[in-house]
Design goal:
- The structure is a single chain.
- By secondary structure, the protein is α/β, with parallel strands linked by helices.
- It is built from seven helices and five strands; from the N terminus they run αααβαβαβαβαβ.
- β1, α4 and β2 form a beta-alpha-beta unit.
- α2 packs across α4 and α5 packs parallel to α6.
- It is globular, with a radius of gyration of 17 Å.
- About 4% of the residues have low confidence.
Length: 198
Protein backbone atom coordinates (compact mmCIF):
# COMPACT_ATOMS: atom_id res chain seq x y z
CA UNK A 1 0.00 0.00 0.00
CA UNK A 2 2.86 2.37 0.81
CA UNK A 3 4.35 1.85 -2.67
CA UNK A 4 0.99 2.53 -4.27
CA UNK A 5 0.60 5.72 -2.19
CA UNK A 6 4.03 6.99 -3.24
CA UNK A 7 3.31 6.18 -6.88
CA UNK A 8 -0.04 7.98 -6.68
CA UNK A 9 1.66 11.00 -5.08
CA UNK A 10 4.26 11.15 -7.85
CA UNK A 11 1.63 10.83 -10.57
CA UNK A 12 -0.52 13.49 -8.90
CA UNK A 13 2.38 15.96 -8.63
CA UNK A 14 2.15 18.57 -11.41
CA UNK A 15 5.04 18.99 -13.80
CA UNK A 16 7.41 21.95 -13.63
CA UNK A 17 5.89 23.33 -16.84
CA UNK A 18 2.37 23.09 -15.38
CA UNK A 19 3.37 24.92 -12.19
CA UNK A 20 5.23 27.55 -14.22
CA UNK A 21 2.33 28.12 -16.61
CA UNK A 22 -0.21 28.37 -13.78
CA UNK A 23 1.98 30.79 -11.86
CA UNK A 24 2.44 32.93 -14.96
CA UNK A 25 -1.33 33.21 -15.30
CA UNK A 26 -1.72 34.10 -11.62
CA UNK A 27 0.90 36.82 -12.03
CA UNK A 28 -0.85 38.47 -14.95
CA UNK A 29 0.99 36.90 -17.88
CA UNK A 30 -1.18 35.54 -20.68
CA UNK A 31 1.07 32.53 -21.13
CA UNK A 32 4.79 31.82 -20.99
CA UNK A 33 6.70 32.06 -24.23
CA UNK A 34 7.75 28.89 -26.01
CA UNK A 35 11.37 29.78 -25.19
CA UNK A 36 10.53 30.05 -21.48
CA UNK A 37 8.82 26.65 -21.50
CA UNK A 38 11.96 25.09 -22.96
CA UNK A 39 13.91 25.72 -19.75
CA UNK A 40 12.23 22.60 -18.34
CA UNK A 41 12.85 20.37 -21.35
CA UNK A 42 15.79 18.67 -19.66
CA UNK A 43 13.81 17.74 -16.56
CA UNK A 44 10.09 18.43 -16.18
CA UNK A 45 9.51 16.28 -13.09
CA UNK A 46 9.44 18.45 -9.94
CA UNK A 47 10.81 15.62 -7.84
CA UNK A 48 13.94 15.33 -10.02
CA UNK A 49 14.41 19.03 -10.83
CA UNK A 50 17.68 20.20 -9.28
CA UNK A 51 18.84 23.10 -11.44
CA UNK A 52 17.58 25.45 -14.14
CA UNK A 53 19.95 27.36 -16.40
CA UNK A 54 18.20 30.04 -18.41
CA UNK A 55 21.06 30.17 -20.94
CA UNK A 56 20.28 33.66 -22.25
CA UNK A 57 16.51 33.00 -22.24
CA UNK A 58 15.05 36.25 -20.92
CA UNK A 59 11.82 35.62 -18.99
CA UNK A 60 11.23 39.00 -17.33
CA UNK A 61 10.45 39.79 -13.70
CA UNK A 62 7.06 38.08 -13.70
CA UNK A 63 8.61 35.04 -15.32
CA UNK A 64 11.30 34.98 -12.63
CA UNK A 65 8.66 35.09 -9.91
CA UNK A 66 6.87 32.18 -11.60
CA UNK A 67 10.17 30.28 -11.85
CA UNK A 68 10.77 30.83 -8.13
CA UNK A 69 7.31 29.35 -7.48
CA UNK A 70 8.46 26.23 -9.34
CA UNK A 71 11.74 26.12 -7.40
CA UNK A 72 9.89 26.41 -4.11
CA UNK A 73 7.86 23.30 -4.98
CA UNK A 74 10.82 21.26 -6.27
CA UNK A 75 11.96 19.30 -3.19
CA UNK A 76 15.50 18.57 -4.40
CA UNK A 77 16.41 21.83 -6.12
CA UNK A 78 20.05 22.92 -5.76
CA UNK A 79 20.91 26.06 -7.75
CA UNK A 80 19.00 29.27 -8.51
CA UNK A 81 20.51 30.58 -11.76
CA UNK A 82 19.25 34.04 -12.72
CA UNK A 83 22.23 35.51 -14.54
CA UNK A 84 21.72 38.24 -17.15
CA UNK A 85 17.98 38.67 -16.48
CA UNK A 86 18.01 42.49 -16.29
CA UNK A 87 16.89 42.47 -12.67
CA UNK A 88 16.68 46.17 -11.87
CA UNK A 89 16.40 47.71 -8.44
CA UNK A 90 13.85 50.22 -9.73
CA UNK A 91 11.31 50.24 -12.52
CA UNK A 92 9.29 53.27 -13.64
CA UNK A 93 6.18 51.29 -14.62
CA UNK A 94 3.70 51.52 -11.70
CA UNK A 95 2.27 48.01 -12.10
CA UNK A 96 5.54 46.21 -12.74
CA UNK A 97 7.33 43.84 -10.39
CA UNK A 98 10.34 45.70 -9.05
CA UNK A 99 13.82 44.25 -8.98
CA UNK A 100 13.88 44.54 -5.20
CA UNK A 101 10.86 42.26 -5.01
CA UNK A 102 12.79 39.69 -7.04
CA UNK A 103 15.77 39.87 -4.68
CA UNK A 104 13.47 39.61 -1.64
CA UNK A 105 11.84 36.52 -3.13
CA UNK A 106 15.17 34.93 -4.06
CA UNK A 107 16.48 35.44 -0.52
CA UNK A 108 13.26 34.09 0.99
CA UNK A 109 13.34 30.96 -1.17
CA UNK A 110 17.06 30.41 -0.48
CA UNK A 111 16.53 30.72 3.27
CA UNK A 112 13.54 28.40 3.49
CA UNK A 113 14.28 25.72 0.88
CA UNK A 114 16.01 22.66 2.37
CA UNK A 115 18.32 21.75 -0.51
CA UNK A 116 19.35 24.94 -2.36
CA UNK A 117 23.13 25.28 -2.30
CA UNK A 118 23.95 28.16 -4.65
CA UNK A 119 22.70 31.33 -6.33
CA UNK A 120 23.91 33.04 -9.49
CA UNK A 121 22.83 36.67 -9.88
CA UNK A 122 25.72 37.72 -12.11
CA UNK A 123 25.16 40.03 -15.05
CA UNK A 124 22.29 41.93 -13.40
CA UNK A 125 22.45 45.67 -12.60
CA UNK A 126 21.92 45.09 -8.89
CA UNK A 127 23.09 47.86 -6.56
CA UNK A 128 24.09 47.98 -2.92
CA UNK A 129 20.48 47.81 -1.72
CA UNK A 130 20.25 44.29 -3.14
CA UNK A 131 23.79 43.58 -1.99
CA UNK A 132 22.84 44.29 1.61
CA UNK A 133 20.00 41.78 1.37
CA UNK A 134 22.47 39.20 0.09
CA UNK A 135 24.82 40.15 2.92
CA UNK A 136 22.02 39.34 5.33
CA UNK A 137 21.65 35.95 3.63
CA UNK A 138 25.40 35.37 3.89
CA UNK A 139 25.27 36.38 7.55
CA UNK A 140 22.45 33.97 8.38
CA UNK A 141 23.97 31.18 10.42
CA UNK A 142 20.88 29.01 10.48
CA UNK A 143 18.47 28.08 7.73
CA UNK A 144 14.79 28.52 8.52
CA UNK A 145 13.38 25.67 6.45
CA UNK A 146 10.76 23.42 8.10
CA UNK A 147 13.26 20.71 9.08
CA UNK A 148 16.36 22.78 9.84
CA UNK A 149 18.47 19.79 10.90
CA UNK A 150 18.06 18.31 7.42
CA UNK A 151 18.85 21.48 5.48
CA UNK A 152 21.89 21.65 3.24
CA UNK A 153 23.94 24.62 4.35
CA UNK A 154 26.31 25.34 1.45
CA UNK A 155 25.27 28.42 -0.51
CA UNK A 156 27.38 29.85 -3.34
CA UNK A 157 26.52 33.43 -4.32
CA UNK A 158 27.92 34.60 -7.66
CA UNK A 159 27.89 38.38 -8.20
CA UNK A 160 30.07 38.97 -11.26
CA UNK A 161 29.21 42.01 -13.38
CA UNK A 162 26.79 43.70 -10.99
CA UNK A 163 26.73 47.26 -9.63
CA UNK A 164 27.33 46.13 -6.07
CA UNK A 165 30.41 47.87 -4.65
CA UNK A 166 33.44 45.66 -4.44
CA UNK A 167 33.77 46.57 -0.75
CA UNK A 168 30.30 45.15 -0.10
CA UNK A 169 31.10 42.03 -2.12
CA UNK A 170 34.26 41.65 -0.03
CA UNK A 171 32.16 42.08 3.11
CA UNK A 172 29.83 39.33 1.93
CA UNK A 173 32.84 37.16 1.18
CA UNK A 174 34.36 37.82 4.62
CA UNK A 175 31.12 36.73 6.26
CA UNK A 176 31.25 33.58 4.17
CA UNK A 177 34.86 32.97 5.18
CA UNK A 178 33.89 33.35 8.83
CA UNK A 179 31.00 30.94 8.39
CA UNK A 180 33.32 28.49 6.67
CA UNK A 181 35.68 28.55 9.65
CA UNK A 182 33.10 28.58 12.44
CA UNK A 183 30.11 26.67 11.12
CA UNK A 184 30.48 23.27 9.53
CA UNK A 185 27.57 22.97 8.89
CA UNK A 186 26.20 25.47 8.20
CA UNK A 187 28.62 26.79 5.59
CA UNK A 188 27.85 29.70 3.31
CA UNK A 189 30.28 30.23 0.44
CA UNK A 190 30.18 33.45 -1.56
CA UNK A 191 32.08 33.90 -4.79
CA UNK A 192 33.91 37.17 -5.22
CA UNK A 193 33.52 39.02 -8.49
CA UNK A 194 36.39 38.43 -10.89
CA UNK A 195 36.43 42.13 -11.82
CA UNK A 196 35.66 45.38 -10.04
CA UNK A 197 31.96 46.10 -10.07
CA UNK A 198 30.68 49.60 -10.79
Amino acid sequence: KATVSVLYWLLAMPSATEVFSQSCLQRGMKKPSSAAKKIFEGENNLEDLEEVELDDVYIGNRGIMALLDVIEKAPNFRKIGLSAQKIYNTDLSPDSIKGNEIVDRVVDVAQTHPTITSLDLSGNPLSNFAGRKLLHLANSNERVCPHASQCLQIVGITLDDTRIDIDLIDHIASKCDKNLKVFAPPIIICIRSSGRNR
